[in-house]
C-alpha cells in the first residue's frame, strides 16, 4: 500500500487560538439579501463556459457556502430562489448522551469488528469488506477541468459517535484546503467507485454485498485551538459533526478512544508492537486506490523518530513504519492508526498526519497525531 500520506495542502501558518477554536457551522444562517441555492443555479458565481474557477472565484464560493442538498453544495446567491431542504426520515441511532439533538459523549460500546479474518503480506492489501466499520471517506468538491465542481475523496476519518468523526485538522481547515471544499462523509464505504460494494467468494462464486453507503453532509467543524501553532503540524486533529446520526450495525461501528496508551517501545527492538493503518491513499503505483487499503506498521521509538525529523516532534505525536515499501501516503490524511486492547476491542491511537514526500522509503517514518492524548478535548468538542 504505501497508502498515502497526508500532505494535502498543509500550511505552516497557524491561526490565533481564538479563531481556530471557533467552529465552522454550516447551514444555520445566510446573509441578508440572498437565497441559499445549489451552486449550479447561481449564475454570477459560475465561471464562463469552458473556463475553470479562478482563485478569487473559489475563495468567494468558500465564503458563501450555506448548506447542501443531496450531494450538491449550496451557496448564498443574490436574486436566487431558495431551494427546498431535503429532510431525513430515517430513525436516529446511538445511545450517546445528547444535547441539541446530537451525541455529547463517546459510546460505551465501540471497537467491534464482527467475524472478519485477516491475512497480511509484506505490503498493503485490499481491506476485507466489513473489516473497518468505523472508517469514513471525506469527500471534497474540487474544480474540474471544465470549471465544474467534482466530488473527490481526499482524506479519511474515524467514526467516534453516531454523529461525529475525528480527522486531521489539515483535512478540514479552510486555509489548508485551497480550492477544495469539504462537503460530505461516506460511512460504510469500501470501494468509492461502486455502491453497493460487492465481492465474489472464491469457493461458492456467489456475491456478497454490503448495504448501500451512508452519505452525510457536514454540519460543523472544530479543529484544535493550537493546531500548527509552531509550524510543525502539531495538534493536527479536528472533530466533524455530521448533519444527521447514522445507525450502527455490522458495517458501521464507532471506534474506541482510549484514555491512555503505553507505547512500550525499545529503540533497538525488532519486535515492536504493530498497528493497522487504513486509507484510500496513493499506492505503490502513486495513484489513489478506489478500494480501501490496510497495512500493518511497527510502532517506532519516538526518540529515534524525532531524531530523523531534526527534533520537531512533540509528545502528542507517535511514529510508525520506517520499512521500505510500507507506509501511509498522500490521500491517507486523517485516517486511523488502530490496534487492539486487552478486551480485543479496536482502539484509535493515531491519525495520519504527515511524513516524507517519498512514501515508503527505508527509515521514512510516518507521523501520527496521538489521539488518546486528546480524548478530553474530543469529548468537550462533541457538544459543539
From TrEMBL:
> Where is it predominantly found?
secreted
Supply the source organism for this entry: Hyalella azteca (Amphipod)
Q: Which PANTHER family does this one have?
A: TRYPTASE-RELATED
**GO CC terms:** extracellular region
Which GO BP terms sit in this record?
protein maturation; proteolysis
Domain comment (free text): The clip domain consists of 35-55 residues which are 'knitted' together usually by 3 conserved disulfide bonds forming a clip-like compact structure.
PROSITE patterns this protein is in?
TRYPSIN_DOM, TRYPSIN_HIS, TRYPSIN_SER
Residues making up the signal peptide according to the UniProt record: 1-20
The answer on whether this UniProt entry bears the keyword Protease reads: yes
- What name has this protein been given in UniProt? CLIP domain-containing serine protease
CDD domains, A to Z = Tryp_SPc
- Please list the residue ranges annotated as the Peptidase S1 domain: 121-383
Which UniProt keywords are given for this protein, alphabetically ordered?
Calcium, Disulfide bond, Glycoprotein, Hydrolase, Metal-binding, Protease, Secreted, Serine protease, Signal
Pfam families assigned to the protein according to its UniProt record, in alphabetical order: CLIP, Trypsin
Question: Which family is this protein grouped under?
Answer: Belongs to the peptidase S1 family. CLIP subfamily.
The entry lists its GO molecular-function terms as: metal ion binding; serine-type endopeptidase activity
Q: Where in the cell is it found?
A: Secreted
User: Per the UniProt record, which EC number(s) apply here?
Assistant: 3.4.21.-
The family database entries (SMART domains) matched by this protein are listed as: Tryp_SPc
Amino acid at each position: 500500500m504505501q497508502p498515502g500520506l497526508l500532505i494535502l495542502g498543509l500550511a505552516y501558518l497557524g491561526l490565533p487560538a481564538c479563531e481556530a477554536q471557533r467552529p465552522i457551522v454550516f447551514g444555520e444562517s445566510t446573509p441578508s439579501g440572498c437565497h441559499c441555492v445549489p451552486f449550479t443555479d447561481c449564475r454570477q458565481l459560475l465561471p464562463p463556459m469552458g473556463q475553470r474557477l479562478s482563485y478569487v472565484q473559489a475563495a468567494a464560493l468558500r465564503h458563501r457556502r450555506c448548506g447542501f442538498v443531496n450531494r450538491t453544495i449550496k451557496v448564498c446567491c443574490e436574486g436566487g430562489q431558495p431551494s427546498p431542504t431535503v429532510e431525513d426520515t430515517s430513525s436516529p441511532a446511538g445511545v450517546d448522551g445528547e444535547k441539541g439533538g446530537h451525541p455529547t459523549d463517546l459510546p460505551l460500546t465501540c471497537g467491534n469488528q464482527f467475524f472478519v479474518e485477516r491475512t497480511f503480506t509484506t505490503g498493503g492489501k485490499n481491506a476485507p469488506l466489513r473489516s473497518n466499520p468505523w472508517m469514513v471517506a471525506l469527500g471534497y468538491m474540487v474544480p474540474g477541468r471544465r470549471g465544474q465542481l467534482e466530488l473527490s475523496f481526499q482524506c479519511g476519518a474515524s467514526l467516534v459517535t453516531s454523529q461525529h468523526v475525528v480527522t486531521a485538522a489539515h483535512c478540514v481547515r479552510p486555509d489548508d484546503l485551497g480550492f477544495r471544499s469539504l462537503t460530505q462523509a461516506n460511512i460504510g464505504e469500501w470501494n468509492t467507485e461502486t455502491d453497493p460494494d460487492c465481492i465474489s467468494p472464491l469457493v461458492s462464486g456467489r456475491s456478497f454485498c454490503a448495504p448501500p453507503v451512508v452519505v452525510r453532509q457536514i454540519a460543523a467543524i472544530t479543529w484544535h485551538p493550537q493546531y500548527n501553532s509552531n509550524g510543525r503540524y502539531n495538534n493536527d486533529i479536528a472533530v466533524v459533526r455530521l448533519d444527521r446520526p447514522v445507525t450502527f450495525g455490522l458495517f458501521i461501528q464507532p471506534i474506541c478512544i482510549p484514555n491512555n496508551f503505553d507505547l512500550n517501545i525499545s529503540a533497538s527492538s525488532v519486535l515492536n508492537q504493530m498497528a493497522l493503518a487504513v486509507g484510500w491513499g496513493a499506492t505503490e503505483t502513486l495513484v489513489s486506490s478506489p478500494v480501501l487499503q490496510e497495512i500493518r506498521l511497527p510502532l517506532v521509538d519516538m526518540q529515534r523518530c524525532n531524531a530523523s525529523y531534526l527534533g520537531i516532534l512533540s509528545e502528542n505525536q507517535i511514529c510508525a513504519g520506517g520499512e521500505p515499501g510500507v507506509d501511509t501516503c498522500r490521500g491517507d490524511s486523517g485516517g486511523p492508526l488502530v490496534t487492539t486492547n486487552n478486551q480485543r476491542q479496536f482502539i484509535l491511537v493515531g491519525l495520519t498526519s504527515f511524513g516524507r514526500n517519498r512514501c515508503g522509503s527505508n527509515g521514512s517514518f510516518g507521523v501520527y497525531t496521538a489521539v488518546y492524548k486528546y480524548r478530553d478535548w474530543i469529548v468537550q468538542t462533541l457538544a459543539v
